[in-house]
Q: What sequence folds into this?
């Protein structure tokens, strides 16, 4: 009999394998994609292959696993959502926005390729994602559903809207409610979409989709709170970017609003709720459970 | 009996009506869309409603008309492609790219709303377009096809790729072949996609689609050549932007490469070929014929 501890260990190794698989597929996809200019391809490749956590692809796989145990077949959606995440980082880092020089321990895209190419690389990755989604291994009707899910999550009512709120909140004290709304868009929407897309691809029924959506919303919240905690007390070397940037930029964060101890408690509570949402799922939800626990203990 | 001249006149009036219809629908769509930040909505609205020619929506309608005579029903695709065109203008005008202050007689988006908001407004319009496309009045399979058509045309292998080539060509003499390749991406790809999407929505058969594609490719070429001519000898007041910018920016254009007279001839030849591609179509292709003639005589 396998102990719970060993089970967790196995899933951690499996997650690493899947991260590597996503890395490889992203790399081969961009190398052979129809890109009109080689400098543009290099810029897209640079940010796509700079070693992210691949959280959103992992969530697509894991949510599909929870329903039908064959998540990895939905590789196109996994690559597409990572392209959208990557484009958002490239544009967020631009001088006109967060003006960051480092990302994952390397110069940001505009530092490496110049601002114009960075803008175009972001635009191209966002657009490529939608082309990839039309090539997903599913029915046309499900395909239409997942494209809508992702477009709505990534756009003005989700991620881009949250980014606009984030900009408006700079150098301003905002309330915990406003902070939640901002993050619901900026990071929450795409995490939620990842889980829902995995579930929809695996033909989840309405009750399963609702439970997984609740899981995703709580996971997104926990993810953002730990992000704020890491920015306040994380290790620059592990993070690959300077800590303390929120304080320097006078940004309201969970840490600045409620303090580090309560922020940790809020993150723990959110993960508890995420796990509770999975109570009716069997062992096929093990990946999702493992990912929720990883959020709490992550160091980058 | 209606004379050919009167027929042309009627279609010109109909085109104006359709332009107005697109203007109104864009305006009402953005006013009620899910946008997380009102400043972001205002920036999106500003560029969407600043009076473009609506060429790409008109081409979707007209191509569908040529097959099935009911083009206007495909309004969502028409709005979507205009959103993509608008996003491309906003990003092209940015200081890091063309650094333009005026567009259609008004300050460019980043001049009116700042660079950060302009970048996000472009991102949001591009993303919103894909959400709209999933809502088109068609089957899921056709929906998937048109999304792929538009994503591939707008992305790294099409419009964004062409924009990257355009940047790389600045301050450099390029050949006529290189110029053609650049424009095939930068403006040609989305014009081609507009016609093909209209045709696909109206269930064109393979032969019809091939003929309409040839029409579109020649139309796109004619459009770009007249763009270069207008930049060289157009009227600033009618254009809504300064002329002579290509020369100032040392850009290779049809005018700089072959001279104004031969450029006019090339545009005329392309329109002739576009019209020839329609030879097997009946009166339902009148809109397409009218649009081809408008390209040649346009003053903005």
A:
């Amino acid at each position: 009999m396998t102990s719970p501890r060993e089970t967790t260990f196995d899933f951690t190794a499996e997650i690493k394998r899947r991260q590597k698989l996503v890395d490889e597929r992203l790399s081969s996809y961009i190398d052979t994609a129809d890109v009109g200019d080689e400098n543009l391809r290099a810029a897209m490749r640079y940010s796509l292959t700079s070693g992210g956590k691949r959280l959103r692809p992992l969530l697509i796989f894991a949510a599909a696993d929870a329903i039908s145990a064959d998540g990895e077949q939905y590789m196109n959606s996994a690559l597409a959502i990572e392209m959208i995440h990557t484009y958002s980082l490239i544009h967020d880092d631009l001088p006109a926005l967060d003006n960051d020089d480092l990302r994952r321990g390397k110069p940001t895209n505009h530092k490496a390729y110049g601002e114009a190419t960075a803008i175009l690389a972001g635009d191209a990755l966002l657009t490529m994602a939608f082309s990839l989604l039309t090539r997903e291994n599913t029915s046309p009707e499900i395909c239409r559903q997942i494209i809508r899910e992702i477009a709505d999550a990534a756009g003005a009512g989700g991620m881009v809207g949250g980014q606009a709120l984030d900009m408006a909140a700079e150098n301003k004290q905002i309330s915990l409610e406003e902070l939640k709304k901002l993050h619901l868009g900026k990071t929450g929407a795409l995490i939620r979409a990842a889980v829902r897309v995995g579930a929809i691809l695996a033909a989840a029924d309405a009750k399963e989709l609702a439970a997984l959506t609740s899981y995703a919303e709580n996971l997104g919240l926990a993810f953002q709170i730990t992000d704020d905690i890491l920015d306040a007390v994380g290790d620059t070397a592990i993070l690959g970017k300077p800590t303390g940037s929120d304080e320097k930029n006078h940004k309201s964060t969970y840490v600045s609003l409620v303090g580090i101890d309560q922020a940790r408690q809020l993150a723990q509570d959110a993960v508890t709720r995420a796990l509770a949402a999975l109570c009716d799922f069997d062992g096929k939800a093990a990946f999702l459970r493992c990912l929720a626990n990883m959020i709490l203990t992550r160091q980058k």
User: Anything to note?
Assistant: The longest helix of chain B spans residues 4-32. The beta strands of chain B are 102-103, 106-107.
